Amino acid sequence: MTDDEHMAIHRGSGCFLTDQGYPNVAEVRVKALLANRVCLILEARGWSHVAAAEATGLDAEVFVNAERGRCGVGDLIEALARLGADIAITVGEAVEGERGVALVRGVEDDD
C-alpha cells in the first residue's frame, strides 16, 4: 500500500475551532474578535501598550494580554469602552432547530 492509501480524509464541521476540539467555541470566537478590535485601535492610533494604558487608566498588561489572546471578554469590553468604542450586545432568538451564535461586528462591517 502507498502512503496515499493510508491517508484518511475527514469532512470538517465548517468551524475550525470546533474541529480542533475547543469546548467553548462561541467564547473563543468572541474573545478573538474583541481582542482584534483592541489591536486594530491601538495600531490605528500608533499606540504602544504603555501609551494605551496611560490613555485609558488600565494596566498595560491588559493590552499585552489582549494581543496574546489571554484576556477575558469583560476585560476586552472594558478596554474597548475606555478606548472610545461603542459596544452593543444584542440577544435574540436562535433560528428554530439551530444553536445560537455569538457575533462581533464593527460599523465598517455593515458593507
UniProtKB/TrEMBL annotation:
<dbReference type="Pfam" id="PF13744">
    <property type="entry name" value="HTH_37"/>
</dbReference>
<protein>
    <submittedName>
        <fullName>XRE family transcriptional regulator</fullName>
    </submittedName>
</protein>
<feature type="domain" description="HigA2-like helix-turn-helix">
    <location>
        <begin position="17"/>
        <end position="91"/>
    </location>
</feature>
<dbReference type="InterPro" id="IPR039554">
    <property type="entry name" value="HigA2-like_HTH"/>
</dbReference>
<dbReference type="InterPro" id="IPR010982">
    <property type="entry name" value="Lambda_DNA-bd_dom_sf"/>
</dbReference>
